[in-house]
């Protein structure tokens, strides 16, 4: 995985933990993944928001989930919500992909989430506003790291021992 993408992923993940005040980001997969996708687009990278299921090989007993795909690789910034031992920035290898089942991508993914996960228009507007606020903060944090590289050392130290994990299986 490209170092630029990993830096962006860590920056967005760190911003999300601060913004939502939740180390595991439970229930925030759509918001974080949508903002991460938009930030990658702003950086000139062709990422795709994906909605599907996590943890099973069929739609029965599924856990609905969102993640980002870039260059045919899954980047999941909220997989920690599924249990301990999952890294904060998770990039599964070929064997790990079996737990990610795609249902919709891009605009179809957004439409699916709005139709199936958000039932009231007010809730949709509130969530979209929260995503905008989070995305603005995450992008500002990313720009701050670029302007002040010495902050990277502090950012690495504040990850509470979590490490990037790219499955090579």
Report on the structure:
This protein is an alpha+beta fold. The protein has one domain (3-166): Atu2299-like, CATH 3.10.550. It is built from 5 helices and 6 strands; from the N terminus they run H-H-E-E-E-E-E-H-H-H-E. The strands form 2 sheets. The chain has a 4-stranded antiparallel beta sheet. A two-stranded parallel ribbon has the order 4-6. A hairpin with an 8-residue loop joins strand 1 and strand 2 (63-70). The radius of gyration is 15 Å and the shape is globular. The two termini are 15 Å apart.
| Proportion of residues in helical segments | 40-55%
Q: How many strands, what sense, and barrel or not for the largest sheet?
A: 4 strands, antiparallel
Strand content: 15-25%
Mean pLDDT: 82
- Terminal CA distance: 15 Å
- Helix-strand topology string: HHEEEEEHHHE
């Amino acid at each position: 995985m490209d170092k630029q993408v990993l830096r962006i992923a860590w920056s967005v993940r760190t911003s999300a933990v601060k913004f939502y005040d939740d180390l595991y980001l439970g229930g925030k997969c759509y918001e974080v993944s949508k903002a991460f996708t938009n930030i990658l687009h702003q950086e000139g990278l062709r990422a795709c928001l994906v909605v599907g299921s996590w943890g099973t090989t069929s739609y029965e007993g599924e856990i609905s989930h969102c993640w980002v795909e870039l260059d045919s690789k899954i980047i999941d910034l909220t997989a920690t919500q599924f249990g301990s031992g999952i890294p904060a920035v998770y990039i599964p290898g070929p064997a790990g992909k079996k737990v990610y089942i795609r249902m919709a991508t891009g605009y179809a993914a957004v439409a699916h989430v709005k139709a199936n996960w958000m039932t009231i228009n007010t809730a949709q507007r509130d969530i979209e506003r929260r995503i905008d606020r989070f995305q603005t903060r995450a992008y500002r944090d990313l720009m701050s790291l670029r302007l002040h590289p010495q902050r990277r050392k502090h950012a690495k130290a504040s990850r509470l021992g979590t490490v990037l994990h790219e499955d090579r299986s």
